[in-house]
Amino acid sequence: MNTIKTTTGRRRIVPALLMVASLSGLTGASAVTLDECIGATLRNNPDVRAATERVQAATAAIKEAQSAYYPMLAGSTTYARTDNPPQAFMMMLNQRGVSLQSDFNNPSDTDNLALSLGVKYRLYDFGRRGLDNEMARRGSEVSRLVLRALQNAMIHQVTRGFYTVLQASAFVAVQEETVKSLEESLRVAKERVKAGGAIKTDVLNLDVQLAQAREDLIRARNGVKLSLAALNTAIGANMLDSAKLPAQAELPDNRPPEKEDLSVIQNRPELLAARRVAQIQQAALRKARRQYLPTINAFGSVDWNSAVSSDFERSYFVGVAAEVEFFDGFRKSAAVAGAGAQQRAAAAEADKAADNLRLDLTSASIQAGEAWDRLDLVRKSIANAEESLRITQQRFQHGAADLPELLTAQTGLTGARTRKVAAQYDCLTALSNLERARGQLVDRYAGRE
Fold it and tell me: Cβ(294)–Cβ(266) under 8 Å?
């Protein structure tokens, strides 16, 4: 597996001439590493925090589904007062205080305090509770896989942002070198004008080019600030500034493979989550079909009744009930049809996810190979551009080269340096994206569950 690392020593990607002294400042113990940025992101990013809470909610849903296996216990207290003959009679009957001498048609005011403790337990429901538990467990797995998919994507996003900051810093160094080179050329041109070996327009043209280079330097420095702001936003905390960034990064030694093993997508959390959703819909379909079957419940209660001023009289009531609906306006048949359609849709979504992830991995592999080849190509042009400018500057100093030739050489070197910086960090970003497409970033930084 290719690895992407940041370091303050060993083999350097950005040469010494591209080191950003003005922006790196403290690059020793105070420098913030890529691993630290990723760790902070996994702790602080709002999207990651929200996904983590959804995992907790899904775990609670499992316990909620498991509650169906426990008996339901409920209690109630009721106080009533009436002179209605049937109700008064039943109150006195529950209090075991009925007298045949009473006038049942004209009872006096009768009050009753009733205490009741009831229990209900489902004995059998043809597996519907088990399917509820299965769906809850699968839902919890889906939420965890969604979190891992988000973490995998966020790690790459932060990695890309980190390299964007370093790239912007290196662009500043390129522009600083260009400004210094033009300032030296301007000094030489002024001396030649004084000596009569050059014309004043050469000095004016160099002044214009130097102003343009300084303007580009201002833009480059602002680019660092903007990329830092974007990176801190992705992290979810203001932990980076220009004084805490290392000024170099390291590429792996070997080129990424030409072809990827597409079977690695089988472990991508996105695909696993899509398949879990299909399993949930399959369980929902089985549950919908079992709605035609009865449920068997046991129930019982203990009741205490009193005329408030007398002792409580106790009674009990127990039984077993089987319940089944013979007609419900075709609700169950519609539920089965809908659940079947949802199951087929989920299966299709899982197939689509597999296709998209294969394309994602293939595209990431092609982009990584392209970035690596671009970097190899641009490395070869740097030495030639540097040597061309050195020779042209010497010739210009001695009057053997004119100003357009000097500016062409300077522009060529600046462009080559800029392309090299872009290619270096594009390659690092592409390799990170390749690891993301393989699903390896989350395993390396967030660990396996």
Answer: no
pLDDT, one tens digit per residue, over 27-73 is: 444 778 888 899 999 999 999 999 999 999 999 999 999 999 999 99
For 24, the 3-state DSSP assignment is helix
Structure tokens at 303: 């009741």
Tell how far CA 405 is from the center of its chain. Answer: 52
Beta carbons of 267 and 282 less than 8 angstroms apart:
no
- Residue-level length of the chain: 449
One DSSP character per residue, 79-119 reads EEEE--HHHHHHHHHHTT---TTS-TTSPPPEEEEEEEEEE
Distance of CA 296 to the CA centre of its chain: 45
Domain count along the chain: 2
Residues 24 and 133 in one domain: yes
Q: Are residues 170 and 234 located together in one domain of the fold?
A: yes
Q: Tell me: the pLDDT tens digits for 319-372?
A: 999 999 888 899 999 999 999 999 999 999 999 999 999 999 999 999 999 998
180/210 Cα distance (integer angstroms): 9
The Cβ-side half-sphere exposure at 298, using a 13 Å CA radius, reads 6
Domain extent, residue 82, equals 73-124+294-323
Judgement on whether residues 213 and 264 belong to the same structural domain of the protein: yes
* Identity of the residue numbered 179: V
